[in-house]
Amino acid sequence: MPGIMFQGEEMQLTRLITNLLDNAFKYVPAGGTVRLLLEHGPMISVSDDGPGVAEADREAIFDRFRRGKTGMANVPLNGHSAGLGLALARAIAERHRLTLNLAPSQKGASFVVAPETSR
User: Fold this and answer.
1) C-alpha–C-alpha distance, residues 90 and 101, integer Å
2) Quick one: which of 68, 59, 53, 51 has its CA closest to 90?
3) Dihedral angle at the C-alpha atoms of 96, 102, 104, 108, nearest 10 degrees?
4) Cβ neighbours of residue 49 closer than 8 Å, sequence gap 6 or more
5) How far is CA 33 from its chain centroid?
6) Are 34 and 48 in contact (CB under 8 A)?
7) CATH of the domain spanning 10-118, picked from 3.30.565.10, 3.50.30.70, 3.40.50.300, 3.65.10.10
8) For 5, which of 13, 75, 88, 95 is 20 to 30 Å away at the CA?
9) pLDDT in tens, 89-112
10) Domain ranges of the chain
11) For 59-69, b where at least 16 C-beta lie within 10 A, e where not — what string?
């Protein structure tokens, strides 16, 4: 979208977005939807209509080596997830004076990246 810019290290910000998208694609069911939205603020959101995140896991999923439990029995990860993607994404966001949070959603998960001042 024209006129929307994030200041920071391009490769690191790319990794942040890639990690959020990878996470969404990993948990969305076949035929499901993943959305990437860029808005003025600037703000990036990545949302899906997968199983979502249990209330008890909402902050823990940002810890290293942690994965949410909701819907895990139905998600064939084939050993490809060490539980580092969201922790790394949040660390990158913080290094760039951004926040990364799991926003409330009716279905699935919705991750939002925004400047610290937009809390």
Assistant:
1) 8
2) 59
3) 130
4) 28, 29, 32, 33, 107, 108
5) 14
6) yes
7) 3.30.565.10
8) 88
9) 999 999 999 999 999 988 999 999
10) 10-118
11) eebbeeeebbe
| pLDDT tens column, 10-39 | 999 999 999 999 999 999 999 999 999 999
**pTM, two decimal places:** 0.81
Q: Calculate Rg over the CA atoms of the chain.
A: 14
Q: Please, is 96 exposed, middle or buried when counting C-beta atoms within 10 Å of its C-beta (0-12, 13-18, 19+)?
A: middle
CB of 68 closer than 8 Å to CB of 26: no
Amino acid at 113: V
From CA 108, how far away is CA 50, in angstroms rounded?
4
Residue written as token pair 């969404």: 24
Total count of residues recorded for the chain: 119
